[in-house]
Specification:
2 domains, 10 helices, Arc Repressor Mutant, subunit A, 224 residues, Rossmann fold
C-alpha cells in the first residue's frame, strides 16, 4: 500500500495535482501550504477549517486530492471522509492525523480514504502520499500497516470499529428490548434521532438486522 515512485503523478486534467486542505488550525494549514509551495506539480486550490465548511466549498474547486485532519470539531474527519466520498467521489482523500495507531488507519480506509500521514511525519511523508494517491495508489506508513495487519489477523473483527457514546447507548437500549419511543424518552432525543444513531452504528458494524445488532451487543457484554 505504501507509495512507489515508478511513474509520475498528475491531476485529473493531466496537469498539476489540485489539493484542498481541511484543518481547524490555521497554523497547520499555513505550514502545509509552505511545505508544498516548492513542488511545481502540487497546487493548493482551497481550504476549510471544518468538515461542514469543506462540504460547501469543495465542489467549487473540484480538487484531485483532499488533505483531511481527522480531529476536526463538529463533524470529525471520518464522518467528513464519508460525506466527501458522496459529494465529490472522484477526489482522493489523505488523512493528516496526530494519531499513530493502526485503528485510525483502518477507520479512515473504511470511510473511503486513500492515504494516511501522521502529522509528526508531514515533512517526510506528505508529498509521497499525495503523489501516490494521485496515481491511484494507497499510502500509509509501513509500520502502521504492519501493525494493522497483525492485529486484524489476531483479534476481534470489530476491534477497530468505534461507536460514539450516543451510538453505543442506543445500541445497548435496542439490545435490551426498548422501543424507539422508550429510548427517545430515556435519552431526551427524538425517535428520528434514535433511528439515525441506529443506522450509523449498523453502517459502522456492517450489520443489517436488529438481530445482528443485538447479537453484537450481547457478545460484548453490553447486555445480559
Amino acid at each position: 500500500m505504501k507509495a512507489s515512485t515508478t511513474r509520475p503523478a498528475e491531476g485529473a486534467g493531466g496537469g498539476r495535482v489540485r489539493l484542498f486542505l481541511v484543518d481547524d488550525h490555521a497554523i497547520v494549514r499555513a505550514g502545509v501550504r509552505a511545505l508544498l509551495a516548492h513542488h511545481d506539480m502540487l497546487e493548493v486550490v482551497g481550504e476549510a477549517e471544518s468538515g461542514e465548511e469543506a462540504l460547501t466549498r469543495v465542489l467549487a474547486v473540484a480538487p484531485d486530492v483532499v488533505l483531511l485532519d481527522l480531529s476536526l470539531p463538529g463533524m470529525n474527519g471520518i464522518e467528513t471522509a464519508r460525506a466527501l466520498r458522496k459529494t465529490i467521489p472522484a477526489a482522493r482523500l489523505v488523512a493528516l492525523s496526530m494519531h499513530e495507531d493502526p485503528e485510525y488507519v483502518q477507520g479512515f480506509l473504511e470511510a473511503g480514504g486513500s492515504g494516511y500521514v501522521p502529522k509528526s511525519s508531514l515533512e517526510t511523508q506528505l508529498v509521497d502520499a499525495i503523489l501516490a494517491v494521485a496515481r491511484g495508489e494507497y499510502y500509509a506508513p509501513a509500520k502502521l500497516l504492519a501493525e494493522l495487519a497483525r492485529e486484524m489477523a489476531q483479534g476481534d473483527p470489530y476491534k477497530h470499529v468505534k461507536l460514539t457514546g450516543r451510538e453505543l447507548e442506543v445500541v445497548t437500549q435496542i439490545a435490551e428490548g426498548n422501543t424507539y419511543r422508550e429510548i427517545a424518552e430515556a435519552l431526551g432525543i427524538s425517535e428520528k434521532t434514535v433511528a439515525t444513531y441506529r443506522e450509523r452504528a449498523s453502517e459502522k458494524l456492517g450489520v443489517r438486522s436488529r438481530a445482528e445488532l443485538v447479537r453484537w451487543a450481547i457478545e460484548r457484554g453490553l447486555v445480559g
